[in-house]
Amino acid sequence: MGSLFRSEPMCLAQLFLQAGTAYECLSALGERGLVQFRDLNQNVSSFQRKFVGEVKRCEELERILVYLVQEITKADIPLPQGEVSPPAPPLKQVLEMQEQLQKLEVELREVTKNKEKLRKNLLELIEYTHMLRVTRSFVKRNVEFEPTYEEFPSLENECLLDYSCMQRLGAKLGFVSGLIQQGKADAFEKMLWRVCKGYTIVTYAELDESLEDPETGEIIKWYVFLISFWGEQIGQKVKKICDCYHCHVYPYPSTAEERKEIQEGLSTRIQDLYTVLHKTEDYLRQVLCKAAESVSSRAVQVRKMKAIYHTLNMCSFDVTNKCLIAEVWCPEADLHELRWALEEGSRESGAPMPSFLNIVPTKETPPTLIRTNRFTEGFQSIVDAYGVGSYREVNPALFTIITFPFLFAVMFGDFGHGFVMFLFALLLVLNEDHPRLTQSQEIMRMFFNGRYILLLMGLFSVYTGLIYNDCFSKSVNLFGSGWNVSAMYSPGHTVEERGRMALWNDSIVRHSRVLQLDPSVPGVFQGPYPFGIDPIWNLATNRLTFLNSFKMKMSVILGIIHMTFGVILGIFNHLHFRKKFNIYLVSVPELLFLLCIFGYLLFMIVYKWLAYSATTSREAPSILIDFINMFLFPTSQASGLYPGQEYVQRVLLAITTLSVPVLFLGKPLFLLWLHHGRGCFGVSRSGYTLVRRDSEEEVSLLGNQDIEEGNSQAEAGCREVTCEEFNFGEILMTQAIHSIEYCLGCISNTASYLRLWALSLAHAQLSDVLWAMVMHVGLRVDTTFGVLLLFLVVAVFAVLTIFILLVMEGLSAFLHAIRLHWVEFQNKFYVGAGTKFVPFSFSLLSSKFSCDDGVV
User: Fold this and answer.
1) Which of 284, 454, 467, 827 could anchor a disulfide with 532, C-beta 3.0 to 4.6 Å?
2) Transmembrane ranges (predicted)?
3) pTM exceeding 0.70
């Protein structure tokens, strides 16, 4: 608990690493995650550092591993499942691993290239076979093509073509055949007509089946075309147009014998290619399966090796270039483990001289380290989202574990809804080691990371639901109501009681739309309900008025207690940072201001509950009127809550009035008195500088940087400052701004806690409306169709309850609970201006390997 209450003490240490043992020592440190390294080469570019060559080698290995994973994924070979975390490879094995990976890459690229080439040839031969089969129906006669070829008899009568002229010029009839994509066929035909001016004849036929494109691998619908033309010039134009439209052109046989010979040759070659391609794929799959066994572990090793060299680049060499010097932040509790890790690294490397560390005094602010576990991690994340805590200040997460789910439950109070949320969170907690949950989508991962928050939110909602006696907007009668209706009937009372009390009779019961229970009548109110709200209020017409009054007062009470607790936690910060004057001049006036006004309001609420019973409730004065009269000093004497109330209120108001100037001027004047009246501690008037300080109070007078609450340099060592750094005007302005913000904030923050009442009312009313519009309708249907309809009604009610009341209303209450902690609670004591401790740890690297990983 000590670590969660306040961040751990840190120290700055220098590591002296022998050049031959630095790699092994950092490997041992990375496995344990003990220290955070400081960059000692900030002025040196990344390309000029000592180990840039080793980093480039790791990046080359990463590139090879990315290629391997892509090929393994493409071959549908599963990667090993589960966590893999081998240690960083020894330096002796790095070159061997690099050679193996490079050799494997070359072999894979060669086999893959041959496979793609064989596959492309196979697809081209298949296309050629389909083209020959389809174009056979285009030609009727299997003779040598002469100038008087009669396959197109209509050409002799065509007015556009002078056939006899073409014959005299010696032009021969030529053919171009191939395949073209379906979407390009129309544009291709128009282009041929325009360019060749009608001296071509195009014949199309659609293939029955879709074929794979040899270039892209896509399954495409193809058209087979046959183009007839005269002359070589037109033939050149036709071929260029085919190239422009990416047509797959194949030789066209001149005779039937040639066609038959080509088809037989194609059939033989296709069979041979199938055989060779299958053998190539089998060999490639064997290589990839063998590579898949070790690719995950090698990827993790390369990640660790690269992280080590990146960290070594942050170290500096001594003058002999034989020893590396590193500066690290380390928790004081882990110093013995740090020494043991250095000894282990030196022992593994076989160095004769072990590496060692030296504690360095420093004035710099250490990073903040708060150790968490699975349970506390989610609550710490809520606090860190506001700001990482300053070094050694009080951590609100310890108290947030209770206050956050409780304030959420106040706004979400419903036994049924809370129980559903609790079951959902319990399911996540019981299956938290399931790999599918840790690798789920973003929204589901958010629920999983906050499973313990949801668990407590649901549990506390069950508790507040029992207090409100709400279960899906309905009350549950567990202990029996404390109200007795039969006692209101007049036959059960004497004649004197009938005349004095407003009792019921048969006429009133028959003709009155509303019946009122009078708790002053003997036997009507038998005592309070043992736990929570009496279920009879669920039937009352003034139920909303009663619950609003109860929840509004409860919200004010919880808010004042919450804020007061925040101010008290600030005292612990002042004590720890040795700023005792802040306790008397800041915290005490703040507490007096808060308690004399709003604490007194809390007292009046509780006193009225205890002092007045049902019989004297009509005589009870209004708390609101009394609270307003506290500031107005009315001349008329009104009956108060208790004797001497007027004098008590005047004393409290006087204390409040006196605390304001103390809050505004106390601290600045005290520091000014220290500065002028008592001199500068250890500093003479002639301008010598301070070389030592004994407490924070002695240095705070010398500069405004040291008088801010929660100053992260409260525990720094020696520092030189001059007397001239003291600026009274700036200190006074800073304190005035803080005081105005606090005084106005007490009013606005108290009003802000009324959101507990507002959201609780909204949740209850929305739940009531959903029950009335859905479940109530289904339950009113007669038994003939009611059973069948009830299943549908329950399903609709469950869906609307989950998505509207649990998800949307739960998210709204969650955000409001965060706001109450960040603004109303934490700003009373929490600065949140620190930097998070980020250790050099291999556990921060992803242990899962994926081809989509940004690193590998």
Assistant:
1) 467
2) 406-430, 451-468, 554-572, 584-607, 651-674, 785-808
3) yes
Question: Angle at the Cα of 261 (from 260 to 265), degrees rounded to 5?
Answer: 115
DSSP-based three-state secondary structure for 136: coil
CB 652 within 8 A of CB 597: yes
Amino acid identity, position 465? G
CA separation for the pair 101, 86 (Å, rounded): 17
What stretch of H or E contains 619?
none
Token pair for residue 191? 């282009």
Helices and strands in the chain: count of H runs, count of E runs: 29, 11
Q: How far apart are the first and last CA of the chain?
A: 39
The rounded distance, in Å, linking the Cα atoms of 519 and 612 is 13
Beta bridge partners of 17: 324
* pLDDT reading at 147 higher than 50: no
Helix (H) or strand (E) holding 510: helix 506-511
Q: How far is CA 33 from the centre of its chain?
A: 23
Q: Which two tokens stand for residue 850?
A: 């994926």
User: For residue 497, what pLDDT is reported?
Assistant: 61
Q: Which two tokens stand for residue 827?
A: 């700003």
CB 327 within 8 A of CB 12: yes
Residue 748 scores a pLDDT above 60: yes
Bridge partner list, 212: 219
Could you list the beta-strand ranges (E) of 614-713: none
What's the per-residue H, E or C state across 557-586?
HHHHHHHHHHHHHHHHHHHHCCCHHHHHHH
Going by C-alpha positions, the residue among 95, 59, 101, 116 that lies closest to residue 287 is 101
Angle at which helices 451-468 and 415-430 cross, to 10°: 160
Task: Please compute Rg for the chain using Cα positions.
Answer: 43
Token pair in block for residue 839: 């250790």
Residue 820 has a CB neighbour count (10 Å cut-off) of: 26
- Give the amino acid at 120: K
What tens digit of pLDDT does each residue of 254-299 get? 788 888 888 889 899 999 999 998 999 899 999 999 988 888 889 9
For the chain, give the mean pLDDT: 83
Instruction: Name the residue with higher pLDDT: 768 or 699.
Output: 768
Element (DSSP H or E) covering residue 775: none
Choice among 243-257, 377-391, 751-765, 781-795 with the minimum mean pLDDT: 781-795
Q: Which fold has domain 115-143+171-279?
A: Alpha-Beta Plaits (3.30.70)
| pLDDT number for residue 707 | 37
Q: Name 465's Cβ contacts closer than 8 Å, sequence gap at least 6.
A: 409, 413, 414, 415, 416, 417, 418, 471
DSSP state of 595: I
Which pLDDT tens digit goes with each residue over 198-234? 778 888 888 888 888 888 778 888 888 888 887 788 8
Closest among 386, 366, 373, 380 to 8, alpha carbons compared: 366
Query: For residue 626, which amino acid is it?
Result: D
Give 25's contacts (C-beta < 8 A, 6+ positions apart): 15, 17, 341, 342, 345, 346, 349, 355
pLDDT of 300 above 70: yes
| Cα(167)–Cα(335) distance, integer angstroms | 102
In this structure, the dihedral spanned by the alpha carbons of residues 456, 462, 468 and 471, taken in order and rounded to 10 degrees, is 140
What's the CA gap between 662 and 49, in Å, rounded? Answer: 57
14 membership: H or E segment, kind and range: strand 10-18
Residue ranges of domains in the chain: 10-102+296-359, 115-143+171-279
Predicted confidence band at 541 (pLDDT cuts at 50, 70, 90)? confident
Q: How confident is the model at residue 158 (pLDDT cuts 50, 70, 90)?
A: very low
Three-state DSSP class for 599? helix
Tokens of 525: 């109110």
Contact 470, 764 (CB under 8 A): yes
E strands in 194-261: 200-206, 211-212, 219-220, 222-230, 248-250
Tokens for 398? 């310890």
